[in-house]
UniProtKB/TrEMBL annotation, chains A, B:
Oligomeric and partner information: Homodimer.
Entry's Gene Ontology BP terms: negative regulation of DNA-templated transcription; regulation of secondary metabolite biosynthetic process
Family label: Belongs to the Fur family.
Co-factor remark: Binds 1 Mn(2+) or Fe(2+) ion per subunit.
A Pfam family it matches: FUR
Alphabetical UniProt keywords: Cytoplasm, DNA-binding, Iron, Metal-binding, Repressor, Transcription, Transcription regulation, Zinc
Binding residue positions for Zn(2+): C81, C84, C118, C121
Matches recorded under CDD domains: Fur_like
Domain of life per record: Bacteria
Gene: fur
Entry's localization field: Cytoplasm
Species whose genome carries this gene: Candidatus Contendobacter odensis Run_B_J11
Name assigned to this protein: Ferric uptake regulation protein
Length: 124, 124
DNA sequence: TAAGAATTGAGAATCCAATCTCAAATCAAC
DNA sequence: GTTGATTTGAGATTGGATTCTCAATTCTTA
């Protein structure tokens, strides 16, 4: 049995309303904008719970803190700003990536990560 | 001033002779095949030194221990085996990746990571 | 080969994300 | 509302990679 709690609802809503993947500290910070704060342990527990439910996915980018986003955003990739370190979604993909691997390697999935400067940082 | 030592020479040679990126423990293990062992701290210090010299590069793959390879291997990408967790080089690339990012984002570089099962693990 | 500077090795210490602890609070069902 | 199960929060703890410590060793130059 599992309960629906104010904290979990807030955490899920924050993830759904964000246009980019969020780190646990990001989530905690946003969740604490309102009245009561939320413990970091609670954020981690909720993320684990939603992951197990298949409602969110983990986004791991080298050089960035692991972050999370809703699982229903379709196939896409990520951009990380070298200045502010924020992770952004980028739509689209390319074909024939599997062809890069040696013939006797089985490719199950792929990630494309773009590194650069985001619009905000680029404008100073 | 910096000295050339047996340990650093061994470490660099191990990296150059490997056909895949190696982790610090990998390097230490291989360096200790011969007579004298090498301390892990020494491995980390040498890697830091070679990085500063621009002779090697860090390869970061989510889910894998950070590993290193010579900097002169040209543009390529990586494959990580989901079973043995080893990281392999894959040659080739695809074009127009920069086009995936929003127009006001500047793309400086990219990474492609393939996840799957390597030849050895695929053959049991 | 003498001397000063850099490096090494082993283990301790640090760092930091993630997990655990446990009493207090919250939830769902009756 | 009562009750028992689940969840929360704060801080302590863990785990694993990396760095630090410092005496001993190695290297370079002269």
């Amino acid at each position: 049995m599992s309960y629906s709690t104010r904290q979990r609802e807030v955490i899920l809503e924050i993830l759904q309303q964000s246009d980019r993947p969020l780190t646990p500290p990001d989530i905690r910070e946003r969740a604490s904008q309102g009245s009561a704060g939320i413990g970091l342990a609670t954020v981690y527990r909720a993320l684990k719970f939603f992951m197990a439910q298949g409602m969110i996915v983990l986004v791991e980018i080298p050089g960035a803190v692991p972050c999370y986003e809703p699982a229903d955003r379709g196939h896409h990739h990520h951009f990380i700003c070298q200045q502010c370190r924020l992770v952004f979604d980028v739509q689209g993909c390319v074909h024939d990536l599997e062809a890069l691997a040696p013939r006797d390697f089985q490719v199950q999935r792929h990630d494309i990560i773009l590194y650069g400067v985001c619009a905000r940082c680029g404008a100073q």
